[in-house]
Amino acid sequence: MNFDDTPQEAAFRAEAKAWIQANAPKQYEEELRKSSLGRTVLKGANILEVAKAWQKKKADAGWACLHWPKEYGGRGASPIERVIWQQEEGPFGKLSGMFIIGHGMCGPTMMAFAGEEQKRKYLPPLASGEKVWCQLFSEPAGGSDVAGLRTRAEKKGDDWIINGQKIWTSGAHYSDYGILLTRTDPTVPKHKGLTMFFLDMKSPGVEVRPIKQASGQSDFNEVYFTDVKIPDSQRLGAVNDGWNVSLTTLMNERMSIGAGVATGFPELFDFCNSLMLEDGPAIEDRSVRSRLANYAVKASGLRYTSMRAISALSKGERPGPENSIGKLVAGSMVQEVAMYALDLQGAAGVLSGPEDAEVAGKFQAMLLRAPGTRVEGGTDEIMRNIIAERVLGLPGDIRVDKDVPFNQIPTKGRA
Amino acid sequence: MNFDFSDDQKQMRDAARKFLAEQCPPKAVREVLDGKAAYDKKLWQGLAEMGFLGVAIPEEFGGAGAGHLELCVIAEEMGRANAPVPFSSTVYLAAEALLLAGSDAQKRKWLPKIASGEAIGTLALFEGKGNPSSKAIKLQASGGTLSGVKKPVPDGAIADFAVVAARTGSSGRDSDISLFLVDLKAGGVEVKSLTNVDPTRGQAELAFKNAKAEPLGAAGEGWSILTQVLDRAAVLLAFEQVGGSDRALEMGRDYALDRIAFGRPIGSFQAVKHILADMYVSATLARSNCYYGAWALSTNASELPEAAAAARISATQAFQHCSKNNIQVHGGMGFTWEFDCHMYYRRANATALTLGSLSYWEDQLIDRMRKKNAA
Ligand SMILES: Cc1cc2nc3c(=O)[nH]c(=O)nc-3n(C[C@H](O)[C@H](O)[C@H](O)COP(=O)(O)OP(=O)(O)OC[C@H]3O[C@@H](n4cnc5c(N)ncnc54)[C@H](O)[C@@H]3O)c2cc1C
Question: What's the gap in Å between the CA of A378 and the closest CA on chain B?
């Protein structure tokens, strides 16, 4: 067991540090440092442009998508080098937010299922941030039950014709490409009639409508498909094998979301260190300390759990379903942390304007974003199911739709 | 970076698990639980023969000289088996105090006896209610003798010697405290067994009446040594707690697979599955905190105080969480004496208090994080 860098790791760290020092967009460092879940704003700048510029610069110098193979725009780095990079990138890493879906989910799916020529064409501009990708899975009728989706794909000559609707698609409004899960056979049980594609979001018939979220922001969208044409060459995996393809995506989703989810603990610790209560500094209050300690050990437990996962990865083990733990724990923790930070402020905790709110409304923003964290990428309940069934080996839920052809599954709860 | 035990250490774990599965089945734990013996003597000798008692004791003092990572591995298995032996008091407390502060002669006298299973040791710190605090220590040292009462003392009724915290000054500071070594068989100490939540690990009252004592470590250094001993023991005990958590989770999982209600295994009900998933989560977070603690302990890193408190808190929470929910998953069966669930529940709740309560360690953690932040 060893936490220190090996000489190679130390050399990598020094190289990364020097490059970041010389190239990062320092003018945004302070704002990025202060930003937290639900709140990343750069005054007087378009964050998408800043993020793309930083990503491109990284890619040109060989620092983008570190763990991807070089020929697809990455660096072929080890999992541990990736962690070292993240540590050194610090607040500038927050600029990668809009690439998470592309880099964490679409990229690995393309790598596993696209043809060699396509990989060489599409992956490098994805790695460099020039092209942004989104994940078109969820539908009004198919969120947790992904396989319940209805968007149809019908074969016509060498093309497929897509009709239907996706929803909650993060980043679709600025995406260039997307991976799309469709129904190709409604007469068989639901998991057996799905097919995966990737498509150009500028294709005729694709309409993206931003949705205003509960947080007041608009990061996700409805996406409508009307007779959208996708060449068969953009199919990922076999016809009607889309479920298996999507499992690759979802597994990677858990890995990349799980490792990076904010817990809110560092923010809360700093806050309690500076906040004055009636009887003195908050951090000297026994009940505050007890709450803080509880959050502290969850945050450190998650941090070291992901280090264990990385150690396993670097020994060649595959990421398993146990990685669901990160999102499950961090999601509800960040929500509790935000509520607690507001509670400590008493009546003034409701104020969210940067002038009136403590630490410029950071915790209010966190509070309003947190519910989404517990839903996106699989709800808490789905995560618990995964742990129970796939890690602990408990029986699967009883599935009443298991052997029923998709078009005979009831569509309304209360008939 | 490599955040895992080595293959050798894992082999040692497998050996310990196999040994304990054979030598320490629940039946053996029950002998002690039911009061038929104070501890499992045969198991204790077996542990000595396997070299487990002296794993972290240097070879020159009769140990295996392996190290603290290896001791963490053994500790986890001791917890998993709920072993009814004075392992934590002898190995984590007494031996660690000797290793940290003992003179060469003291080490030579006691460490080989610990490693061979001849001597049981303990730490006499508490004097009634409360958490570790120099102010709470009233037991007085004068002219090479000790007078006062210590309780609860873990495994105090079966111990051969004790490391005793005593008052040697009156300045009101931590430097008033010094440590002493007392041979409990030499007279001057009245020993009384106390009933407690977990009879598989005894508690006692030790009344010192001008008992002969020799200093352990420099005068006035007692509190500083104790703090280090407690931190080291916190990591080791946390591994026991993680072992116990895992076992409780396993028991719950196995029962959920076998028990049928409403025509299906109860493990197919989502409410039950989610209880078990949450047990897994708490055990996993604790294990990860423990690994960090193990690293800090084995390298004597400056992070040890913080890492130890974090390991202690999260392992305490995990073991309490897993052991109580194991009973819940077992339903009425879980509440019977006959099922083993309560042995883990007892151990979890007793262990949660033996080095000071959860809230004490929470306080310590934040204190230490704050100091680090300020530095
Ligand atoms: C911020 C945000 C961003 C998102 N981004 C994307 C994206 O980019 N691409 C994309 O495809 N999707 C995206 N989603 C959609 C997301 O994946 C789904 O919202 C999520 O999987 C839940 O599905 P649902 O909304 O249909 O809820 P439902 O499935 O209707 O769930 C409602 C409730 O029922 C519970 N439930 C459902 N099934 C079970 C079960 N089997 N056992 C126990 N409880 C159950 C759920 O836990 C939940 O509490 C995003 C969502 C959010 C909030």
Answer: 15
Contact A307 B370 (CB under 8 A): no
Selection from A163, A116, A104 nearest residue A326 by Cα: A104
Taking alpha carbons only, the member of B278, B165, B284 closest to residue B228 is B165
Name the closest residue on chain A to residue B258, using Cα atoms. A394
Give the C-alpha separation, A45 to B145, whole Å: 75
Please state, as a whole number, how many other Cβ atoms lie within 10 Å of the Cβ of residue A137: 26
Nearest to B285 among A1, A6, A302 (CB): A302
Could A322 and B284 be called an inter-chain contact, meaning their C-beta atoms sit closer than 8 Å?
A: yes
Instruction: Pick the closest to residue B124 from B174, B90, B91, B164 (CA basis).
Output: B164
- ipTM value for the complex: 0.95
Q: Which two tokens stand for residue B23?
A: 């030598």
Give the pLDDT confidence score for residue A256 in this predicted structure: 62
Q: Please, which residues bridge with residue A180 across strands?
A: A136, A197
Rounded distance between C-alpha atoms, residue B230 and residue A361, angstroms: 41
Beta bridge partners of B163: B123, B181
Instruction: Looking at the CA of residue A380, tell me the nearest atom of ligand 1.
Output: 47
Q: Report which residue type is found at A272.
A: C
Report which of B295, B326, B321, B301 is spatially closest to residue B242, judged by C-alpha positions. Answer: B321
For residue A254, the model assigns a pLDDT of: 65
When mean pLDDT is compared across A40-44, A133-137, A172-176, B368-372, the lowest value belongs to A40-44
Of the given ranges (A37-46, A70-79, A296-305, A378-387), which has the lowest mean pLDDT?
Answer: A37-46
At residue A255, the pLDDT reads 65
**Packing angle of the helix pair B358-374, A265-274 (nearest 10 deg):** 80
Helix (H, G, I), strand (E, B) or coil at A405: strand
Helix (H, G, I), strand (E, B) or coil at A373: helix
A104 lines ligand 1 (CB under 6 A): no
For residue A166, the ligand 1 atom closest to its alpha carbon is: 11
Encode pLDDT of A1-41 as tens digits: 888 889 999 999 999 999 999 999 999 999 998 888 877 77
Compare all CA atoms of chain A with the CA of B256 and give the residue at the minimum distance: A394
pTM of the model: 0.95
Average confidence (pLDDT) per 10 residues, chain B, 375 residues: 92 98 98 97 98 98 97 98 98 98 98 98 97 97 96 98 97 97 97 97 97 98 98 98 98 98 97 98 98 97 97 98 98 97 98 97 97 85
- The string of pLDDT tens digits covering residues A156-170 is 999 999 999 999 999
Compute the nearest-CA separation of A112 from chain B (Å): 28
| B2 contacts on A by Cβ (under 8 Å) | 1-2, 311, 314
pLDDT of A261 higher than 80:
no
- CA A120 from chain centre, in angstroms, equals 24
Phi, then psi, of A378 in degrees rounded to 5: 105, 125
Handedness of CA A244, A246, A248, A254 (dihedral sign): negative
Ligand 1 atom 41: residue of nearest CA: A382
The mean of the pLDDT values for chain A is: 93
Q: CB-CB: which of A4, A394, A397 is closest to B253?
A: A394
**Which is nearest to B119 in space by CA: B180, B73, B181?**
B181
- Residue partners of B270: CB distance under 8 A and separation at least 6: A381, A385, A397
